[in-house]
Specification:
about 180 residues, five-stranded parallel beta sheet, Maltose acetyltransferase
Length: about 180
C-alpha cells in the first residue's frame, strides 16, 4: 500500500491525486456505472456488482440506483438494510451502516474533510476523512446529510432534509440543520 492511501486510511491529511487512489476510484466508478446501468429486472446482476464493490453487503440488503461512492471497499452494510434512490456515500474513511436500516432517497454520507484554517493546504488539494457509523434499525428521511466523524446510535429516526453534524444517541428522533434531538423514542 502506498503512502497516500495509508495516510487516508489512518485519517491523516493525504493527496487524492495519488495514482493508487485514482486507480481505486476508477475501479469503483466502473462497478458503479455497471450497477447504475442495470435494468429493473436485473436484481441478480445488481447484487453481484455490489458484492464486488462494497466491503460488506449483509444478507437481504439492497440499494436502488443511482448510487455513487468513491472507493466502495470502505462501505459495510448490515443485513436487511435499504438505500433508496440517489444515495451518495463519499467513503474516504469507513462507512458502517447497521442492520435493518432504511436510508431515504438522496441521502448523503460524507466522510471527506478539507483544511479550514490552512488555506494553502486546501489550495494544494490536501484532505482528510473521518468515519461514519450508523447503528441498527435507523431510518433517514429523504435528503438527510451525515457529516464526517458522526456516530448514530440504534433505533434512531432522522427527519427529512436534516444535516447531522454531531453524534446522536440511541432511540431518538432528530431533525433540523444542524440536526438536534427533538424527542426520545
Amino acid at each position: 500500500m502506498g503512502e497516500q492511501k495509508d495516510r487516508m486510511l489512518r485519517g491523516e491529511l493525504y493527496r487524492d491525486n495519488d495514482p493508487e487512489l485514482v486507480a481505486d476510484r476508477e475501479r469503483a466508478q466502473g462497478l458503479v456505472d455497471r450497477f447504475n446501468g442495470t435494468g429493473a429486472e436485473e436484481t441478480g446482476e445488481r447484487d453481484a456488482v455490489l458484492r464486488a464493490l462494497l466491503g460488506k453487503l449483509g444478507e437481504g440488503s439492497w440499494i436502488m440506483p443511482r448510487f455513487q461512492c468513491d472507493y466502495g471497499y470502505l462501505i459495510e452494510i448490515g443485513a436487511n438494510s435499504f438505500l433508496n434512490y440517489d444515495a451518495i456515500l463519499l467513503d474516504c474513511a469507513p462507512i458502517k451502516i447497521g442492520s435493518d436500516c432504511s436510508i431515504g432517497p438522496r441521502c448523503q454520507l460524507l466522510t471527506a474533510l478539507h483544511p479550514m484554517e490552512d488555506h494553502e493546504l486546501r489550495r494544494q488539494r490536501w484532505e482528510s476523512a473521518a468515519p461514519i457509523t450508523i447503528g441498527n434499525n435507523v431510518w433517514f428521511g429523504g435528503g438527510v446529510i451525515v457529516c464526517a466523524g458522526v456516530t448514530i446510535g440504534d433505533d434512531v429516526v432522522v427527519g427529512a432534509g436534516s444535516v447531522v453534524t454531531r453524534d446522536l444517541p440511541s432511540k431518538v428522533f432528530a431533525a433540523g440543520n444542524p440536526a438536534r434531538v427533538i424527542r426520545e423514542l
